[in-house]
Write a structure and sequence with these properties.
It is a single chain. The chain has 5 helices and 6 strands; from the N terminus they run ααααββαββββ. With 174 residues, it is α+β, with helices and mostly antiparallel strands. It has one domain: Hotdog Thioesterase (Thiol Ester Dehydrase, Chain A, Roll), CATH 3.10.129.
């Protein structure tokens, strides 16, 4: 059982000067090996980002510069045509790009999403995996940084590609 009390490791991780990515990776490292740990981690992400919770995706891999997120096909994410809704695809793609990006940001940087492009290539049905890889550029002045997520079905076919445009800049007080 994981204990979150004022003296527990999880509580202390939230009270340090670590970056959000450091805190998330630490939480991932503690939870992901446990039975149901990835599900718990994903629900915690949903508490931090309430809109993302609406699709109830599950983070399956999370490391610096890389994230994989599972979106199960179920009624709550379907459209009237019986396939996964376009905005659910955009949401899971944006989550994958954000996790891959935040996991590598230093304490001196911050990021905000400025635009989102998505290309739909096939009807999305069945379990889907959104995968994003990114590296962090050298940032001296604010810069736009695109991060791409590919969303694939169980056959490995690309159903959509999401490009999230993140504005990177110095954190306040840096």
């Amino acid at each position: 059982m994981i204990e979150v009390t004022p003296n527990s490791d999880l509580w202390l991780m939230a009270r340090t000067n670590e970056t959000p990515g450091d805190r998330l990776r630490g939480l991932w490292g503690k939870l992901s090996p446990l039975p149901g740990g990835r599900w718990i981690f994903s629900r915690l992400i949903g508490l931090m980002v309430p809109y993302t919770h609406s699709i109830r995706s599950t983070v399956v891999d999370f490391e610096p510069g890389h994230a994989r997120v599972l979106l199960r096909d179920r009624r709550r994410v379907r459209n009237h045509l019986g396939s996964v809704h376009a905005i659910a695809l955009a949401n899971v793609g944006e989550l994958a790009t954000g996790l891959s990006l935040i996991s590598g940001l230093g304490v001196e940087l911050r990021a905000i999403l400025t635009s989102l492009d998505i290309r739909y290539t096939k009807k999305a049905r069945g379990p889907l995996i959104a995968e994003a890889h990114c590296s962090i550029p050298e940032v001296t002045d604010p810069v736009d940084h695109p991060v791409e997520a590919t969303i694939r079905d169980l056959d490995g076919d690309i159903v959509a590609t999401v490009t999230a445009h993140w504005r990177l800049g110095q954190a306040r007080g840096q």
